[in-house]
Write a structure and sequence with these properties.
- With 355 residues, this protein is of the alpha/beta class.
- It has 2 domains: 80 residues; 245 residues, Rossmann fold, CATH 3.40.50.12780.
- The strands form 5 sheets. Strands 8-9-10-11 form a 4-stranded mixed beta sheet.
- The longest helix is centred in the middle third of the chain and has 14 residues.
Length: 355
């Protein structure tokens, strides 16, 4: 599977389709999305589109009203062999045998721009994704399987939401409360009405909620735990949000290449300002000197972040991108570690490092 951003322009769509080898794409029948996807049938190797009607996910009355009142927002879909409607695709007896899957088989090509030019497809295996969810499950000591509710306002095509919202909810038996995009008023109403207990997000979202007027109209007390990622979490934002909700808001760090979670601050422990926390279970981390990779650096110094764990990708997808600088190195144990350049070492460096 390859995740695509629906906001991509045609040039970005074409690059990722061709680089990944995508031949079949699922998309909505919305006029904002379908036309640029449909154009890919002539511009790329894409040869089949599975169309999912937006009205099909709505209950009866809302589905009828959507078709009636939102006709201008629905794209006209050609009737030919290159287009299949989702409802016809699943209209079968289910007798097709399941394809055998091994843990090391690639499950997702997660494209990441990074800082090295063209996007790269991180090859995440079924084992990588399962391991990262397991690591997150173990990070929440008071998790109640089958009882939690997760509010998802982040896009599921992004690796953070894919793991911390979708995959985590499935593994924990949690209810998913999904909004199509972040809207402050809709989010506050969803918290008030639906009572989510977990709310993964980014600092700008927590800041937005902190600054909302008339917050006393909403009951936000159902939220128990939040993990912030994507950018540094300012202390004043963390403190204010925790005061508003009574929850525990912690900062973590991750990247597409790690499925994505690599470190996180403790839910019930020390949280140091500006820290990305400790390695999640089963993960080894060290900061090595950029010039002399065999040496680790003192606390506070710049260096390369070396990560090893069951959530680390097997590599980048095929093609000319393989000519980029090698991203895996071998440490003294003879095992490979993923190398990421970091501007500053943080809290987790106070633990003992293996050299």
């Amino acid at each position: 599977m390859v995740n695509f951003n629906p906001l991509y322009v045609e040039r970005e769509l074409a690059f990722q389709i061709n680089d990944s080898g995508t031949e079949i794409m699922l998309t909505l029948d919305l006029a904002l999305i379908y036309p640029k996807v449909g154009a890919m049938l002539k511009q790329t190797q894409l040869n089949r589109i599975i169309v999912c009607p937006m009205a099909g996910i709505l209950p009866g009355v809302k589905s009828f009203l959507f078709r009636l009142l939102k006709r201008k927002e629905i794209a006209t879909i050609p009737s030919d062999d290159q287009h299949i409607r989702f409802d016809s695709l699943i209209d079968n007896d289910g007798s097709e045998p399941a394809t055998p899957v091994e843990p090391m088989d690639t499950a997702v090509l997660q494209y990441t721009g990074g800082t090295t030019g063209a996007p790269k497809g991180a090859m995440l295996s079924h084992g990588n994704l399962a391991a990262n969810v397991s690591q997150m499950l173990h990070w929440f000591p008071d998790l109640r399987p089958g009882e939690e509710k997760i509010l998802g306002v982040l896009p599921l095509f992004h690796v953070f939401a894919m793991t911390s919202v979708m995959n985590f909810a499935v593994a924990a038996g949690a209810e998913m409360i999904l909004l199509p995009r972040y809207d402050r008023d809709q989010t506050l109403k969803a918290i008030h009405d639906k009572h989510p207990t977990l709310f993964p997000a980014v600092p700008t979202i927590y800041t937005s909620i902190n600054e909302a007027p008339k917050l006393d109209k909403y009951d936000l007390s159902s939220i128990s735990f939040c993990i912030s990622g994507g950018a540094p979490l300012p202390l004043d934002v963390k403190t204010r949000f925790e005061k508003l909700t009574g929850c525990r808001l912690v900062e973590g760090y991750g990247l597409s290449e790690c499925s994505p979670v690599a470190t996180c601050n403790a839910i019930n422990g020390v949280n140091k300002e500006g820290s990305i926390g400790l390695p999640v279970p089963g993960t080894e981390i060290a900061i090595h000197d950029i010039e002399n990779s065999e040496q680790t650096v003192p606390v506070g110094e710049r260096g390369e972040l070396w990560i090893r764990g069951p959530q680390v990708m097997s590599g980048y997808w095929q093609g000319p991108l393989r000519r980029l600088k090698k991203h895996f190195v071998t440490d003294g144990s003879g095992l490979e570690m993923l190398v990421i350049w970091m501007r500053k070492a943080t809290f987790f460096l106070s633990i003992e490092l293996r050299t």
